[in-house]
């Protein structure tokens, strides 16, 4: 039985609306998608928590 991911808007997204990055967390994976062009079951980028931490620290 699979559990649906709970998506939320990344704090790194702007407040302009329409173009945001959404993320969903699991214990082993960070799922990332572009909300304006990704349907509910569309493609996502998946990275490890350590890769996500390195990416967000490099801003």
UniProtKB/TrEMBL annotation:
Domain DUF397: 5-58
Entry protein name: DUF397 domain-containing protein
Organism: Streptomyces lanatus
